[in-house]
Amino acid sequence: MLHTDTALVLFSGGQDSTTCLAWALGRYARVETIGFDYGQRHAIELTVRPAVLAGVRALSHEWDARLGEDHVVDLSVIGRISESALTSNVDIAMQENGLPNTFVPGRNLLFMTVAAALAYRRGLNVLVGGMCETDFSGYPDCRDDSMKALQVALNLGMATRLKIETPLMWIDKKQTWELAKSAGGSALVDLIREQTHTCYLGERGALHAWGYGCGTCPACELRARGYAQFAAGMAGVIAAAPVS
Predict the structure, then answer these.
(1) Residues forming the annotated binding site?
(2) Annotated binding site for Zn(2+)
(3) Which fold has domain 3-240?
(4) Where is ATP annotated to bind (predicted)?
(5) How confident is the model at residue 239 (pLDDT cuts 50, 70, 90)?
(6) Where are the domains of the chain?
């Protein structure tokens, strides 16, 4: 059912945010997107965003009609004040606090706050993000409690009734591929494989079965493992199908 609510999707150009965009386009009458340039090491994601958005539009006349303006915001201050493997050319490693050094402190909190300010100005009342507690590296700003607390704080601070939706919060990467297929069919799965970018190192060389990437960073490992499980499940469904 199409809701009359309007949504702003945090859209990086990666697998998760593209899946969230398709999810939102299937639910909301008007959808806009927002991306952030924060000095990320994998800035290639900003380069692929326009092609991914164009590909999403081409998948459905209804989606094309519902998909509105795209916004890119300069948050390079994050890169200047944060020393992490996503904003500096250092090896990915675990830290003494138990978190990987790919954690960028405050990133998602700032993303959501800026998105809320833009949504306020644009008259949008739902924020959609790809935060997830199932396949994640322990990032505290990806947790459901963090998002719920932030929703309360944003609405108190702006006297609004914004809602934060996180459709991937309780599913793993295999299920994320499945959600993409249910939202946009095999064409969306292929678009995610061939156009989106998730690799932390910004590697965009060979196209693997699961997409582009180095294949060894945490983001690539999650994506590849989830796709292998998804593909195996699809093969099983085909093999089990009755012969007509």
Answers:
(1) 11-21, 199, 214, 217, 220
(2) 199, 214, 217, 220
(3) Rossmann fold (3.40.50)
(4) 11-21
(5) low
(6) 3-240
